[in-house]
Amino acid sequence: MFDGRDPIYLQIADQIRGDILDGTLREEEQVMSTTQYATTFRINPATAAKAFTELVDEGVLYKRRGVGMFVSPDARSRLVAGRRDRFFADVVEPVAAEARRLGIPVEDVVARLRELAAEPAPRRPDVAATTTTSTDGESS
Amino acid sequence: MSFGVEVRDLTVRYGRTTALDGVDLTLEPGRIHGLLGRNGSGKTSLLSVLAAFRPATSGTVLVDGEDPFENPRIMAGTCLVRESGDHMDDKARATLQIAAAVRPTWDAELAGRLVDRLQVPLDRKPSQMSRGQRSALGVVVGLASRAPLTMLDESYLGLDAPSRYAFYDELLADYAEHPRTIVVSSHLIEEVERLFEQVVVLDHGRVLLADDADALRARGATLTGPGDVVDAFLDGRRVLERRTLGRTAQVTVDGGLDDAERRRARDAGLEIGPVPLQDLFVHLTASGDRP
User: Fold this and answer.
1) Are A91 and A57 contained in the same domain?
2) CA B117, B121, B122, B127 torsion: positive or negative?
3) What is the pLDDT of residues B156-201, one digit of tens each?
4) Which domain holds residue A23?
5) Total count of domains within chain A
6) How far is the alpha carbon of B172 from chain A, nearest alpha carbon, in Å?
């Protein structure tokens, strides 16, 4: 589950952010306790607590005393705003660097981006699965 | 309740052999500490002094602020389970009854659950048990004592894999509910490192490293790429290991990389990887020479 590339607490924090972004964790929903994280993933409870501290500092989670940790009401919009800020540095710049390395003209990259943008947005996997069952199964 | 530990300039000698050589160490209360070291590095000597099984040759040892040696209050709150188990040769049932009588913090319900889960034969004496069963009995005593300073000296290593995982689960669940100072010593690191909040590495009777487990996990890095590019990037870093395959080199360096350095390495075409705690431990303690 956690591959050791980053400290485990960063991986836990990333996983919770991802769950909020894709709607697996909803706003005002309670997240697992540090004890549950510790016993489920066999990690020190302090490691899980560190992830929570980071997410509380970011305003993604908040603590209800004596009850536990909950997803902030505006957690998703915060995360979306943060990812937008980093989008060019984290996503576009590596694409540009790799294209340059491979000698792919920037026009080709832009053309492909335009094509993708023109296609209907990809459906969520569960929705896609139910809409393709009525066809012959050759969805690609 | 948790006991903290302060050790200053601790030396332990057995005749002409020096087992611990000027050890300085602080174990914060209420955390799970990993005590790592190769065989003969001094782990058992250190734990034996903390548990008042033997006196220090010189130096200061404070457990919850007091010298533990022949100190009834500290000894009642300190539990060391060594790999041998140190059990008297009586039926396991009797061993558990005595532990229950002398440990003010004993939890009979936890003991019962562990006996079932780890399959301890209550009607057998340790001399009639397998190594795994003796280990299991030691683990039951160690966890159910719920001592403010609990030390498990490789005591779980005789357990088979399913029992070891059951032990990790029970340790974490009980620690989460009843925080206390726990020291787990091991030379098998990969399996247990995530249990630790802090790690101490002993080598040749001295403290080689003592740090937050996450800091140690971020401490090293591997750099992989064309040999000359890797070399240009090393820039005086301490190299722990170097492997070459044709023109590609993979170098393990001591010391993590900050974000700017990571970016520079990636831009230079190098792949950056983490160094697992076990690898760091192997690299740092592999030398047979005394420091």
Assistant:
1) no
2) negative
3) 888 999 999 999 999 999 999 999 999 999 877 888 888 999 999 9
4) 8-74
5) 2
6) 6
Whether residues A26 and A51 fall in one domain: yes
Answer yes or no: do A53 and A20 share one domain. Answer: yes
DSSP conformation class of A30: B
Decide if B169 and A8 are in contact by the 8 Å CB cutoff: no
- At A42 the three-state DSSP class reads coil
Task: State the Cα–Cα distance between residues B153 and B51, nearest whole angstrom.
Answer: 11
Residue B18 pairs in a beta bridge with B13
Residue A2 inside a domain? The answer is no
Looking at the structure, tell me whether residues A40 and A61 fall in a common domain.
yes
Write the pLDDT tens digit of every residue in A114-126. Answer: 999 888 766 555 4
User: Which of A4, A5, A42 lies nearest to residue B169, judging by beta carbons?
Assistant: A42
Is residue A128 one of the residues assigned to a domain?
A: no
- The answer on pLDDT for B290 being more than 50 is no
Q: How far is A112 from chain B (nearest CA, A)?
A: 25
- Domains in chain B, ordered, with CATH? 5-212 (3.40.50.300), 220-274 (3.30.70.260)
Residue percentage of chain B with pLDDT more than 90: 68
At residue A24, does pLDDT exceed 70?
Answer: yes
pLDDT of residue B288: 53
| Contact residues on chain B for A45, CB-CB shorter than 8 A | 172, 175-176
Is residue A58 located within the same domain as residue A28? yes
Q: Is some CB atom of chain A closer than 8 A to the CB atom of B177?
A: yes
How many residues are listed for chain A in this entry?
Answer: 140
Amino acid at B278: Q
Residue B257: count of CB within 10 angstroms of its CB: 18
